[in-house]
Amino acid sequence: MQVVAYLMYEDEEAAASNILRDFQRTDSFLVGEIDEMDLDSLRETGVFVQEIVDTAPEPLDELLARNQNLAVPRAAFERAEGFPLHDTTYFTAQLSGPLIEEWRTTLKKEGVEVLEASGPNRYTVRIAPDASSAIMNLGFAQRLRPYSNNHAEPELCEAV
Q: Dihedral sign, CA of 20, 22, 26, 30?
């Protein structure tokens, strides 16, 4: 099973590093695999552990209904230099865990700008039109859906 182990002290990091497999490290947590029988052992070391439960992707209709009335700061759409707004497409991306720096760097290299978190392991992203198929080949990208039935235009996301 996949877990997030939140760390405060070096001894907690050492304990989690010894028990977790195939983990990714950040400054404050590790994301990795653990056998179910080792879960209690890790918790006994004082590490706060959150299980990453596979959640079924929400139907696009529900996701749009939740997000369509939210205002997105205009600055979010103007941050990526070199991406003209009319040549860019907005998507909701579901990842297999929290967005760690390594994944953010990989996404950026693939032409993805992460705009905002929109739910557990879900993010609103802006992707160059020719990059969307490459995103799905990344091991941590589970689902990629258009942000709306019509690709979001800046005037639909008014500045706050």
A: negative
Token pair 């369509």 in the structure block, residue? 68
Question: Residue 107 belongs to what H/E stretch?
Answer: helix 101-109
| The two structure tokens encoding residue 31 | 């994301």
* Six-digit token string for 127: 């992707």
Half-sphere exposure for 155 (CA within 13 Å, toward CB): 2
DSSP 50-85: EE---PPPPPHHHHHHHHTT----HHHHH-STT--G
pLDDT tens column, 123-155: 888 887 677 667 778 888 888 777 754 444 433
Could you report the per-residue pLDDT of 45-78, keeping only the tens digit for each? 999 998 887 665 555 545 554 555 444 444 444 4
Nearest to 157 by CA among 135, 124, 113: 124
What global pTM score does this model have? 0.55
Structure tokens at 21: 């497999």
